[in-house]
Amino acid sequence: MAKFKIPRIAKPFAIDVMLPGSKSIALRQLAMSALTDKPTTLFGIPHCDDTEAMLDSLTRLGMTISRDKDQTGLQGPMNLTDDVTLDARMSGASTRLLIGLAALRSGQTCIDGHESLRARTNTPLVDALERHGCQVNPAPNGGLPLRIKGPIASTSTISIDGSLSSQYITALLVIMPLLKDANRIEITGDLVSKPYIDITLNEMSKRGVNANWCDANTLEVTPGDYGGGEFRVEGDATAATYFAGLATLHQSSVHLLNIGAGTHQGDYKFMKLMEDLGAHVSRTSETTKITGPKDLAELGSIDMTEMPDAALTLIAMLPMLPGIKSINGLSSLHHKECDRLECPAQEFKEMGVGVDTTEDSITIGSVLTGDISAHELTTYHDHRIAMAFSLLGSCTDSLTVDDKRVVDKTYPEYWSDYQRAVAT
Question: Are residues 37 and 12 part of one domain?
């Protein structure tokens, strides 16, 4: 673990940023590549721990994979019969997708990962698969290590709890077209993170597979085969929030070169929040430019139910914002790489920032950035804690992260791109 003091941004800057490819889109496309015998070429797969974990797992599942700069070639389908052990490292999204793929296999699949990933439950997905013929042996908390043996029995309708994470539903959606008699997913509980399911539907459609919402709690999937071909992965919308926030806070300009209004990523709505703070945002279908305001406007109370990963960026910005500093709609943050509600709250307390939380909200008391105590930030093995709180560090010059390389999980070049804003 390499400690790193976050440099303060002392003057306005203007930079162009090529974001890493969207992890959410990349992992979905990689999983779908395992379900077709047609060759796939993907452009823009990010070089980070999460995608490397998925690529290594797909190789162990018998796929042929080649990588050359921006291009990744994949030839499936995956092996369905041999016993195999997979290491998901720290990737929750990869874990859930791999559990879904494993449900199609007659061979036993053992999935394990980092201790922080082991602590995260997969119970809703496990329960759904067990009800439909899979033999699943998870750790006592529904976490890893997990052993699963299929194949899943085909049925007209599969029900699953959607109140903890949309990733469980995505795992089912991706494999559903291959279950020739299955055509519905019924979601129980209060669905969280619906925009991530919409990403899944959009990526499936690119492969010639149709799946749609029937109503707020029911998805209909048309049986069919995934196509191959060439697909480009756009920039990561959650990564975009860090630079949008920096531009907004520092009266600066950031031009994001590979994400625009054409995206289906829910976290792109963060740009509207920056406009509400006073920033000017100009968009094309593929690019976005954010220019920060001279004076920040007040946001009032904000609901982030539809942007759970972006919520952490806004949480880290709260001490620098005027007026009421309250965010709600955060219940799903308890079930991420760490508890992204209580862990940031604890860090704020250690910096001398007054903070209150409920099950789904956080409120920050009035504080001057100059009064925030120097602090070594505990990142809890969570890449987004480090990147989100870099916004606070950019204004205070008093924040050190306990592990500079934690960002390698999704954005290995983050500190280099951040430094360009400092050096402008």
Answer: no
Residues 223 and 313 grouped into a single domain: no
β-pairing verdict for 108-112 and 375-377: unpaired
**What is the rounded distance in angstroms from the CA atom of residue 33 to the CA atom of residue 41?**
9
From CA 112, how far away is CA 147, in angstroms rounded?
9
- Both tokens of 64, joined, read 């042929």
Rounded CA gap, 337 and 140, in Å? 18
DSSP at 212:
E
Predicted confidence (pLDDT) per residue in 84-124, tens digit: 999 999 999 999 999 999 999 999 999 999 999 999 999 99
Write out the catalytic residue numbers: 309
Q: Which of 232, 262, 282 is the last residue of a domain?
A: 232
Among 87, 409, 113, smallest CA distance to 238 is for 409
Per-residue model confidence as pLDDT tens digits over 184-219: 999 999 998 899 999 999 999 999 999 999 999 999
Alpha helices in 176-276 (DSSP H): 194-206, 237-249, 270-276
Tell which residue, 280, 283, 282, has the closest CA to residue 291.
280
* Tokens 């806070």 found at: 249
Residues of the domain holding 64 = 23-232
Task: Please answer whether residues 126 and 94 qualify as being in contact, where contact means their C-beta atoms are separated by less than 8 angstroms.
Answer: no
- How many domains is the chain built from? 2
Q: What is the CATH number of the domain that holds 245?
A: 3.65.10.10
